[in-house]
Amino acid sequence: MAEPKSFRPKQFPPPEFMPRRKPIFSRMPPAVFPVLMGLLGLGLALRRGFDLLGLPSEVAELVLGAASGLWVFAALAYLSKIARRFGTLAEDLRTLPGRAGTAAGSLGLLLVASAVVPYSPSLATGLMVAGLVLHGALALLMLNTFRNGPPEQREVTPVWHLHFVGFILASLSAVPLGYVGLATTILWGTMAIAGVIWGISLMQLVRRIPPPPLRPLLAVHLAPASLFATVAALLQLHDIALFFVVLGGVILLALVIGAGWITTSGFSPLWGAFTFPIAAYASALFALDLVATGVMVLIAALGIVPPILYRVLAGWAKGDLAAKTNAAQA
Q1: Does 1.50.10.150 match the CATH number of domain 30-317?
Q2: Lower CB density within 10 Å: C or N end of the chain?
Q3: Alpha helices of 117-214 — where are they, by DSSP H?
Q4: What is the pLDDT of residues 266-278, one digit of tens each?
Q5: Residues 56-77, buried b or exposed e (16+ Cβ, 10 A)?
């Protein structure tokens, strides 16, 4: 008679009394980048405004230095996350905050290039080229995401301006660096794309009301008009510059009138969309020598950008921002 098999309890791993700590920056939220883009834009507006007003430039340069340093820190943090698991980039591109954040991240490099122009033209040129290549690659990845994703993911949103019109930021560096042909080509190309996005967005707005959480993104529509005005002024295309500064004024007025409706859902990381456009419009006004109006808009930007920047960065430091924006985990 065979002996009965002895029963052995199933082996379990020993209990962990302390939860495993996730690697640092393994869930770095790209939603940090829009507010950093806003801070860089504010620094550029201060530089342009202080120059016109004859004020000391140290404050503007200090803001630009701090903004550039913060952008470099955030970029390295996000690169460490991608290096740990490259698939996190594709996962971030599937969410609206992720798409906006990654686009703002690459555009931040173009703004850093513009900040560096007075100090090192050669470094600024390298950063501008790197920014164009990086943003172009990201735009291609975004198109691939649209092609393979669900139909609702392909809906046109104001964030499309960041992905497909944001190349205009390179012209802020290209003109003072002497690449006038490049700046002009980018200006005309991005104006055509922005016109299509504006038209589709206007039809969408007429047909249905955006849900409250997404309404802050409407502020992004101000950014292309502001940048076109600034670049056209740099290229001495005064009629085009004037047209876009007026268009930007109309968009800004609509945003101010509808501010309560736009912000009805309360603060969210998407409020980062308010930061760069208002700073860019102040720069546009200064570029057209509309100093008095530019100062008023700059004062408004000083009241808008720092508080939103603080709240978003505080959310990143506490770990709340990643969860609220559904950032990918490496």
Answers
A1: yes
A2: N
A3: 121-148, 159-160, 169-177, 180-207
A4: 999 999 999 999 9
A5: eeeebbebbeebbebbeebbeb
